Amino acid sequence: MSHPVHPGPESLQPFFNGIDALCQPQIIFGGSIAALIGGLVFRRYLVKPAVAIGITVATLAFVGLSCLNGQFLSQAQKPDNVPIWILLAMTGFVLWVSFYQAVRNDDRIRQGLRTEEHEAAEEKLHVWPYLLYIEGIVAAFAMLVLFVWSVGIEAPLEQFANIAKTPNPSKAPWYFLGLQEMLVYYDPWMAGVVLPSMIISGLVVIPYCDPNPKGVGYYTFEQRKLAITTFLFGFVALWVVMIFVGTFLRGPNWNFYGLYEEWNPHKLEQLNNVNLSEFFWQNFMGESLPKQWFAREWPGFAVILIYFTAVPMVCAGLFRKLYKSLGFVRYNILIVHALFMMALPIKMLLRWSFNLKYIVYIPEYFFNI
Amino acid sequence: MSGIGDKLRKVLDESVYQSVIWRSVFRHGFPDTDRNRTLVVLSNLFLHLHPAKLKGHAVRMRYTWCMGGLSFFMFLILTISGVFLMFYYRPTPEYAYADIIDLREGIPLGAFMRNIHRWGAHAMVIIVWLHMLRVFMTGSYKAPREFNWGVGVILLVLTLLLSFTGYLLPWDQLAIWAITVGTNMARATPFLGHEGPGASLIGYDDFAVVHPKSDVRFMLLGGSIVGPPALLRFYVLHCVFLPLVAGFLMAVHFWRIRKDGFSAPL
């Protein structure tokens, strides 16, 4: 069924191959976390308009060159992937806008001045016309964009639904690709039920677990370093990047493909993942696996117990001020959500470095972590 | 200098703006004085979502990115285009796919309305996320607005569910498989899904309480595969239930913005 795709001009092949070699889960996720931290550290340079324009031009050039490759183009120009481009562009732009203002405000605060928002808030403006005109113009502009988008790109319609014919890959809607990516590292009950529930409840409890009274109503980074870093880690590294990966780098059989690598459904990936209990009993103790599930899996339970008890205690010691201002209950709500959030990158890391499949493996009860 | 414009204005003043009908609709003069600018906002049902006056920073686009307002605007566009589509669409496998083809091929503006609905839905998901990002970056979730942040999170989830339920309705390969992949997760719900941890503990000897025809996925789909009952369920959720819940929570969300005050530096 697959037609060979056009690989693009000969002179660009080394470039494409180089990028493809970099397209591995550990490099993509590790790189995006590094880029996020680097972006926060070097925010003063990145918010300079000249730098931002330079990065934009470079990105556009990269995308433009990439479009010479058939595989990339076929994914990039899918009508249903247009929102991915908008999401990537808009997220980058609004982050730039907020950090541009945050850096300026932080400078003003350091000089003992009030923030730009403080000064603007002095003045009271009539909603008519000052706000309603803006709303009207923005609504008209949004309508125009949507009109052009709808006239220009036809919403696709595939063949009649057929439950007997599975497309490969079958993908969830793009905004759930983060969850589908989690399925690589966790079983469905974790990736599809527990972790999404923890994302929702984690978002809801943010205001109750942020004891920092500063930074209300104005852009700042220096007054809210921990909160903003944590939130952006979740929003950018664990959500937006996963959507990008799920769209462009996950192909047939949910294998990981390079950006320019043809989606060959017969690509084989070595899967020799092992469970923690096998590590412990066979490699470490040199015995065979115990039959009874608890006797077999207690090391995994111990690891999880330590993760959810010792780590909070150590963190309470490290962040005494946070612990004191939140109190026991709210501190624990915060730390449990943080631990669930970190559970994904930790499991990724364990998979990549030790081929670890499950920490606890009890197929008898569908209980695998 | 009295040009034709002035004359027209005079005629309009006398015959329209001073008329009984005009004055019965608009109970104030032109919004060119402070008093009338206040009245125009206070006396109009739609405009009174706003206060009459705002602090200067809250008006600026660089502060709000307009994302909250745009989320609501997208909801309205999707409601209007969605009602249009409902006139032509029947939620059964025999008709659903054919009705979409009809919309594309035979109905004036049908394809356009479907495109607006499809791309507007994608846009709304992005806009709602960015709205959340803005509210976070300005610390606007902090006291006294903690509760409203929570309402917003639920609205975000509803936006995703609205989009997800709508995905199935064209009844094409993309639809059925995206929903199959998505709802397969429900099999693994702890205790409530038949492949979920703990489900096998509920029951008695060989008698399982949670099995493929009784679990939470079955409830969601009205069957053990994505079939006709699932299409009807998703249609009702998409067109009636979820919009009603979202509308109700939006009312709470907007009311609380007014009561708690728009986020401002102290």
Question: Percent helix among the residues of chain B?
Answer: 55-70%
Report the strand count of chain A: 3
Give the strand order, joined by hyphens, for the main sheet of chain A: 2-3
**Spans where pLDDT lies below 50 across 5 or more residues of chain A:** none
The CATH superfamily of chain B is identified as Cytochrome Bc1 Complex, Chain C
Q: Biggest interface and which pair forms it? A: A-B, 97 and 104 residues
Number of helices in the DSSP assignment of chain A: 14
Strand content of chain B: under 5%
Give the biggest beta sheet of chain A: 2 strands, antiparallel
Q: Considering DSSP H and I runs of 4 or more, what fraction of the residues of chain A is helical?
A: 55-70%
Radius of gyration of chain A: 24 Å
Give the strand order, joined by hyphens, for the main sheet of chain B: 2-3
The number of helical segments of chain B is 12
Tell me the radius of gyration of chain B. 25 Å
Layout: helices, strands, pairs:
The complex is a heterodimer of chains A (369) and B (266).
Chain A lengths: L12 H10 L2 H17 L1 H4 L2 H18 L3 H7 L5 H29 L5 H6 L2 E3 H26 L24 H6 L5 H18 L19 H25 L26 H9 L8 H26 L1 H35 L6 E2 L4 E2 L1
Antiparallel strand pairs in A: 2-3
Helix pairs in contact in A: 2-11, 6-11, 10-14, 12-13, 13-14
Chain B lengths: L3 H14 L2 H6 L8 H9 L10 E3 H4 L1 H4 L2 H20 L6 H13 L4 H28 L8 H23 L4 H12 L18 E2 L2 E2 L7 H6 L6 H33 L6
Antiparallel strand pairs in B: 2-3
In short:
The complex is a heterodimer of chains A (369) and B (266). Chain A has 369 residues and is an all-alpha fold.
Structure description:
The complex is a heterodimer of chains A (369) and B (266). Among the domains of chain A are: 11-115 and 233-263, no CATH class; 276-368, no CATH class. In chain A, 64% of the residues lie in helices and 2% in strands. Chain A contains 14 helices and 3 strands. Chain A has a two-stranded antiparallel sheet. The longest helix of chain A has 35 residues, at 320-354. Chain A is globular and about 75 Å long. The model of chain A has no long low-confidence stretch (mean pLDDT 93). Chain B is an all-alpha fold. Chain B has a single domain, classed as Cytochrome Bc1 Complex, Chain C. In chain B, strand 2 (203-204) and strand 3 (207-208) form a beta hairpin. Chain B is extended. At the A-B interface, helix 6, helix 7, strand 1, helix 8 and helix 10 of A face helix 3, strand 1, helix 4, helix 5 and helix 6 of B.
